[in-house]
Amino acid sequence: MDIVKNILTVDVEECFHRNDFPLSRQQRDFLGSRVMEQTERVVSLLKAYGQSGTFFVLGEVAELYPQLVKGLAREGFEVALHGYHHRLVYEQKEEEFRHELQKAKVLLERIAEEEIIGFRAPSWSITERSLWALKILADMGFRYDSSILPAKAYLGGIPGSYPWIHKREEAEIIEVPPSVMVIGKLRLPFSGGLYFRTLPYNFIKFCIKKMNKKGFPSVVYLHPWELDPELPRLGLDWRGRFALYHNLGKVQAKVERLLGEFSFGPVCEVLADADSFCRS
Ligand SMILES: [Zn+2]
């Protein structure tokens, strides 16, 4: 096992919470709510390998399933926030964002019975035009943010952003970006979502090892529904089918290999050692 502790993060939401292709009420009903069982599956895997991580929970999910949040906190996992309704930050006015954030933070803290210090925006939607959100997060007591993908994505990302954990200039807050492979000016996301599902395991392992060799922890992210090969099949066009169902049957094996070969912890634990690798 490697010496550098990596960061494992899980965005706790339903598969229909995505922002890239909104689904109808009927389609959502067809998919049903599976987040409880799916998250339990991720928790069991982590426990089986003696590993830990941070769970960014959506306010809506916490409201419907407080026992899920309580269970995570009780098991010693870090509970953090993924917004209230999975809305893109840059589509909200500052006041709206502040209001929803406050509501979600209070809710999550009441259920988890602990302070919530981490935030991740839906779909990497803290971009150049919504950097104001960092100040609001810091004002509200968040100590770190994990919303800036340092690459171009369909709905978000800031390709020029510093790709490793760093302190932001805009506010008193630490940025924990999802890991990308840096090759010259090229930034290749590999550490989660469709990239993780599509890329071969050995390439992902190579990227993490490369980061660890420099002394940086990698930041991996998963969605519980991505480990659910039984996800009901909607009649979608090829793009929708690819985004939602591609390689669902292969994710668990990949995650298990990662858990067996690398050491993972929650953001809060790795940040305790931040001075050794965090650029000011
Ligand atoms: Zn999300």
Question: Can you put this structure into words, describing what you see?
Answer:
It is a single chain. The protein is an alpha/beta fold and 280 residues long. It has a single domain (5-276), classed as TIM Barrel (Alpha-Beta Barrel). The chain is built from eleven helices and eleven strands. The chain has helices spanning 25-31, 35-48, 59-64, 66-74, 94-112, 132-139, 193-198, 201-213, 238-245, 251-261, 267-271; strands at 5-12, 54-57, 78-81, 118-119, 144-145, 166-167, 174-175, 180-183, 186-189, 219-222, 263-265. The strands form three sheets. Strands 1, 2, 3, 10 and 11 form a five-stranded parallel β-sheet that branches. A four-stranded mixed β-sheet has the order 4-5-7-6, covered by helices on one side. Strand 8 and strand 9 form a beta hairpin. Helix 5 (94-112) packs parallel to helix 6. The structure holds zinc ion. Zinc ion is lined by residues 11, 13, 17, 82, 86, 122. The site of zinc ion has 6 residues, from loops.
Mean pLDDT: 95
Q: What is the fold-level CATH name, i.e. the topology?
A: TIM Barrel
Q: Which CATH class applies here?
A: Alpha Beta
**Spans with pLDDT under 50 lasting ≥5 residues?**
none
Shape from CA axes? Answer: globular
- Helical segment tally? 11
What fraction of the residues are assigned to beta strands by DSSP? 5-15%
The CATH architecture would be Alpha-Beta Barrel
The secondary-structure element order is EHHEHHEHEHEEEEEHHEHHEH
How many extended strands?
11
